[in-house]
Amino acid sequence: MRAHLPWLAQGDIFRDAPVVDVTVAEGSRVEVASRLGPTVLLTHDCAMDKPNSRGEPRVERFQFARLRSIDSLSGDLQRSLRGSSNSLGPFEVLYLGQISDLGESFILLSDPYYLPAAYFALRFVDYTGHPDADANNALYATPSAHDTRLGRLDQSQIELLRAKMLAFWARVRQ
After folding, report:
1. How many Cβ atoms sit within 10 Å of the Cβ of residue 22?
2. Residues facing residue 19 across a β-bridge
3. Domain that holds residue 69
4. Domain assignment of residue 79, yes or no
5. What is the number of domains present in the chain?
6. Which terminus of the chain has fewer CB atoms gathered within 10 Å of its CB, N or C?
């Protein structure tokens, strides 16, 4: 894990973002609940930094995956996940390792959910001069509300996340 950028980026880790839980109750009735919990932002960077005709961020929703504790798995699954931490397979799961005080964690790509971008009250901020900003366009969507980010996946984890998303959802390997 590394420090997050001032703007939103794929792989940002939130300590307390809404986590959406969908269950099937008696009589096949669908119930939806939310709670605050740790999450990873899955939405790709380029989807966040496109302006609409008014110069505001165009993105309407963000895709997240809840952070899960490796302690919730059996010993065999824990060993398997740790052993394949840098591998494309299994496609569905990304091992993240130790995430600050949240513990050893992973995410499942089979369990994404969406939040309205309006929840974060986005605004474009000019980060000209920031070492990670694009020299041609340094305007980035930046949250002005509910910003509980505590870090970001490191670059190799982000690259593996992208490869796993492609492999999992499209069954295409790079």
Report:
1. 10
2. 35
3. 12-170
4. yes
5. 1
6. C
Residue with tokens 């966040």: 48
In a domain, 1, yes or no: no
| Any domain includes 88 | yes
Residues 146 and 5: their CA atoms lie apart, in Å, by: 15
Q: What's this model's pTM, rounded to 2 decimal places?
A: 0.93
pLDDT in 10s for each residue of the chain, 174 residues: 999 999 999 999 999 999 999 999 999 999 999 999 999 999 999 899 888 888 889 999 999 999 999 999 888 988 989 998 899 989 999 999 999 999 999 999 999 999 999 999 999 999 999 999 998 889 999 999 999 999 999 999 999 999 999 999 988 876
Q: Taking the mean position of all CA atoms in its chain, how far away is CA 104? A: 16
Q: Beta strand 139-143 with 149-152: parallel, antiparallel or unpaired?
A: unpaired
Instruction: Return d(Cα 133, Cα 7) in angstroms, integer.
Output: 10
Residue 6 within any structural domain of the chain: no
- 55-87: b or e for each residue (b if 16 or more CB lie within 10 Å)? eebebeebbbbbbbebeeeeeeebeebeeeeee
Strand pairing report for 93-99 and 12-25: unpaired
Which amino acid makes up residue 134? D
